[in-house]
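Deviation from plan, reported transparently: pyridoxal-5'-phosphate complex.
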Amino acid sequence: MTEGLSPNLQHLETSATIAISAEAKRRKAAGEDVIDLGAGEPDFPTPPIPADAGIRAIKDGKTHYSANEGILEVRAAAATHLSLLSGGRPVNADHIVVSNGSKQSLFNACFTLFGPGDVVAIPSPAWVSYPQIVHLARARPVMIAGDPEWSLKASVKDLERMLPGASGLILCSPCNPTGAVYTHAEIRAIAQWAKAKKVWVIADEIYRRIHYGTGPAPSFLDLPDDLLEQVVLITGVSKTYAMTGWRIGFALAPAKIANAMAALQSHTTTGANHPAQFAAAAALGDERVEQDVNRMVGEFRKRRDIVVARFRQDLPGVEFVDPLGAFYFFFRVDSFGKITGTDFCTRLITQSGVALVPGAAFGDDRWVSGNAETRLTRSMELRQEGFPLCLSAHVREAPFSSFRAFRPDPSRLRVDSRQHRRRICDGYHASIHQIPSNRTRLGDRTCYSP
Ligand SMILES: Cc1ncc(COP(=O)(O)O)c(C=O)c1O
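Because the crystal trials were delayed, the predicted structure below was used instead.
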């Protein structure tokens, strides 16, 4: 797609997730009954407190350029908020840069830290934009396959084995597209490794509040200062506060990097949307909004439980990552026979009007991802039937009949003796489709996380 364009764009591909959503919208506009499980956003409205703050800001004339790095109100609110999420640790508002969505924060961070000759490790499956953003910085993204026995997470051993000379690492937890959550011990081990190797870590924690365990998901900010010297933390209001369209994201970085990122965006977007920054400040700074967040996360959790239960009940043997955070559901389709995620999704949208994202978008086309936690109950039909039942109903029709009524082919299930041994050693008795999320992997040692 980049023929005749600048070499800056030589690796550019359009976002597969956005492409799926666009296709779903196109079909809807043409009158088709489409259920879009491809989009990465909550299906709730923005809570009234930030929405009203945004409207007030416009009426009060906050409609001109703001400071490049963002207005003090929102940087202070973000610093306090991040501090509270991590047990009151100090967070310096001066080290926070506000951008037009955390996607821009990620771009700023990569463009500031990496360049030609740099290699950036990205545990895979990974969110579609990471490799693209690294390419745009003229650095080289290297995908590190996550371990299927650890919810497709990567350990220090995986990173070390695959990439001894990396300059950077982009880590997403809770993870899009798997919903896996790195434990505190895993984050600490990765931070220690990165410090020892002088690797910059970009920690994408945009889904931190959407966590199905106790409290917010573990964070790099739970670590001591000496482990954060080469860490840029990314967050934003899009997912937690249902504010994807307001376009406000944050980067928290060491002073020198924060200043450089602000200078960079002074030449690209000048700064973040001014009135939206007031809306974000209200979202982060008003306790009443936290109740809205708890309600939304509670609802995501209910939907997640439905999807997980139905997969276990109706599709035994189909592997999936047991999601502990975010709002995605990642399951494996190649156990149904010779089918790729792309074929699966193409057939599903054509025959059933259900839009999912093929795993190819995230680096592994044996899998498929769906935004099950947010979109599942949008349709009453799906509410009653359950996501997997909806799938299996359609799968029973030709040409999915080749899947033998959605029963996996046992010879294609990945049960190997190593896996069995580990399960027995760990006292872990889950069936094949329950990929454990709550264990911690430190090198070769395995232990249960608290
Ligand atoms: C992992 C991850 N990081 C960052 C973003 C960007 O979010 P935004 O630019 O809306 O803040 C997304 C959006 O889908 C995401 O899934």
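The first strand starts at residue 35 and ends at 36. We consider this an acceptable substitute for the interim report.
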